[in-house]
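[agent] plan:
  1. take the single chain provided in the ticket
  2. run structure prediction with default settings
  3. attach structure tokens to the ticket
  4. add a short note for the reviewer (M.T.)
[agent] executing step 1
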Amino acid sequence: MRFFIVDDDEAIRSMLAEIIEDYDLGEVVGEAENGAAIDGKLLTIKAVDILLIDLLMPIRDGIQTVRELTPTFHGKIIMLSQVEDKEMIGNAYSLGVHYYITKPINRLEVISIIQNVTEHIRLQNVICNIEKNLNVLSSEKIIHSNTAPVTPTKNIVSTSGQYLLAELGMIGESGSNDLLGMLDFLYQYESEHPLEHELPSLKEIFTSVAIKKLGAEISDLNDIKKESKAMEQRVRRTIFQGLTHLASLGVTDYTNPSFEEYAPKFFDFTEVRKIMLNLQNNSKPSIGNTHINIKKFVRVLFLESKKRH
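[agent] step 2 finished; step 3 output follows
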């Protein structure tokens, strides 16, 4: 992240720059002692992601400066002040300032708020990239629809995926629909990004599926984060159920065709063996003591679904 600091107190500017650099939060690309010294063009040239600006300064204060910057600066703004006037803070919020650090500066507070802002920016970038990919794919479907019929994505991989999840004893679990949604996303993603070597990050997959599930009108990024986290937990529990199901087949019959085919393919066999030993000792397997490799499972499920189709 690239930071610009505006404060009439040189000691404050120095302290903030030191915190940013010492904790690898980003790079300070500029400083100013007054709001009149900056404008949107300067911040754009310096590619500023986060502006740290004091509320009360001579010549032009933080509120006036933010009001001038709003039409052209699209980064995040963190306001600094020891003043706790609710009306002034309200004015700052109304102008798009969502983050506020009180003076005297507390190192831990600064680190925490900057990390939150940074995470917010990164999440917005992920969402933006996903939306661009989906728009490109939608446009291509419209273009090609005049020359050739387009098979619905769901029919291409989801049918095979449902079969595999049933074979793995997972189809009735709450996370099975999430896994099918992930297959759908990966199929669309692959048309633009070949997946021979690596899947997109799990965070991007969960985020994209969460956006689709929540619908077009998303007002709060926290809703996306909460749904992504809940989805990850559902998927983890569902994969654990599949692991337990295969292990139980292996305990009953080590030569069971489903066990022989799927256990080493979808899971680390060390974990399969661990669950088998638990079952043999009449001990209930625990997800907390089991390593679940979600990315490996999703990759294999996707590749196997395409192969079977």
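[agent] step 4 note for reviewer: The first helix runs from residue 10 to 22.
[agent] ticket updated
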